[in-house]
Design a protein that fits this description.
There is one protein chain. Helix 3 (163-174) packs across helix 4 and helix 3 (163-174) crosses helix 9. The chain is 25% helix and 27% strand. The protein is globular. The chain has helices at 40-47, 94-97, 163-174, 190-201, 217-223, 235-242, 258-266, 290-296, 310-322, 341-350; strands spanning 2-7, 15-20, 28-38, 56-57, 61-69, 81-84, 116-118, 124-127, 137-141, 145-147, 182-186, 206-211, 227-230, 248-253, 268-276, 299-302, 332-336, 355-359. Strands 3, 5, 6, 9, 10, 17 and 18 form a 7-stranded mixed β-sheet that branches. Strand 1 and strand 2 form a beta hairpin. The chain has 10 helices and 18 strands.
Length: 360
């Protein structure tokens, strides 16, 4: 038996209860969690913005210690420290063949199959995004367990599994920020804080943080922002004023709202690049005129998991952590238990704080 935060139905409150977790089968790994980050995607799964079969154990940003392994698993062993990858690539689909593993057609398969059961009545449970880390232990595909490089604290390493890989990849892969460029970051939650740090690592000269909450300014500046703008009617104009009247070379949107995406696009210079990291609902429609698309010559692109290959990027990120360029602990504003996840959801909805981290 392990304790877990269970989502019984879409839009229902989470219930902390005991679940029956099986031993790993062939090609699977059982992991005892050290910590799990509370991501906005978990909130989107709980409220139906993103599809999730229920009842489910959510949580997809985690790190822990391997307890046991199934047949055929040889890259990790009991006692190994691992970071969990919520979108493990199959290696055989069309997109994997192109080297675009972040678009893998099979990466979400695990989320569609029951992985455990409620201890109370034996009801089948589904793993949120295939990982289910809002629990003391979980069972995942072996491909989802990435060995943790040495020198990284295990609890803080949870952030590497989503927020940091996504934010770093958005800057270094999707937007390809170059030294000396200006970057506007819209939305300063967990991913936004990782984007700010990654823009600084990339050598961006001016880094403008944008958020609806004025109280996030100190957090943003500590992560690398040179300027802070409270989001409002004139946000794009303010960013242009901070960047020589032209607009930012790059805007990275971390909210997933139509109005924020439109503002991010409008805040970039002619020929600039806007990368959308935030995940919005199907009701969020962004509109442009054909004339402005021609005139401004801007590029608008989506970004999935930072366009990262976690197996290759995780060692790079670990190097930045060890050398002091990437501060994981500074992204965490709340350390909580399983019972604190609903309050963390409320804080995200209200736009408060950075990353909440569940400590086991």
């Amino acid at each position: 038996m392990v304790r877990a935060a269970v989502l019984p139905a879409v839009n229902a409150p989470l219930v902390v209860t005991e679940i029956d977790l099986p031993e790993p089968g062939p090609g699977q790994v059982r992991v005892k969690l050290a910590a799990a980050g509370v991501c906005h995607s978990d909130l989107s799964l709980s409220n139906g913005t993103l599809r999730q079969q229920v009842p489910a154990v959510l949580g997809h940003e985690g790190a822990g210690t391997v307890v046991s392994v199934g047949e055929g698993v040889d890259h990790v062993a009991p006692g190994d420290k691992v970071v969990l990858n919520w979108a493990p690539a199959c290696g055989t689909c069309h997109f994997c063949g192109l080297g675009e593993v972040w678009l893998c057609a099979g990466s979400g398969a695990a989320a569609a199959s029951p992985y455990a059961a409620l201890a109370a009545d034996g009801s089948a449970l589904y793993p949120g995004l295939g990982t289910a880390v809002f629990a003391e232990e979980t069972v995942v595909s072996a491909r989802a367990a990435l060995p943790l490089p040495e020198g990284i604290p295990l609890d803080a390493a949870a952030l590497l599994g989503c927020a940091v890989l996504t934010g770093y990849g958005a800057v270094h892969h999707a937007a390809a920020v170059r030294p000396g460029e200006s970057v506007a970051v819209h939305g300063i939650g967990g991913v936004g804080l990782a984007v700010l740090q990654s823009a600084r690592i990339a050598g961006a000269e001016r880094i403008v943080a944008v958020d609806v909450a004025p109280g996030k300014e100190d957090l943003a500046r500590a992560a690398g922002a040179t300027d802070f703008v409270v989001a409002g009617e004139h946000t794009a104009r303010q960013i242009r004023g901070l960047t020589g009247g032209h607009g930012a070379d790059v805007a990275i949107e971390c909210v997933g709202r139509a109005d924020t995406i439109r503002t991010a696009w409008s805040s970039t210079r002619r020929g600039g690049r806007t990368t959308v990291v935030g995940i919005g609902g199907q009701d969020q429609k962004v509109t442009f005129t054909a004339l402005e698309l021609f005139y401004f010559g801007r590029t608008l692109s989506g970004c999935v998991y930072g366009n990262c290959d976690p197996a290759k990027d995780l060692p790079v990120l670990a190097g930045h952590v060890r050398e002091g360029r990437l501060d994981l602990s500074g992204m965490v504003t709340d350390h909580i238990g399983l019972d604190g996840i609903p309050a963390a959801f409320e804080a995200m909805t209200a736009g408060r704080g950075g990353r909440a981290l569940v400590i086991f």
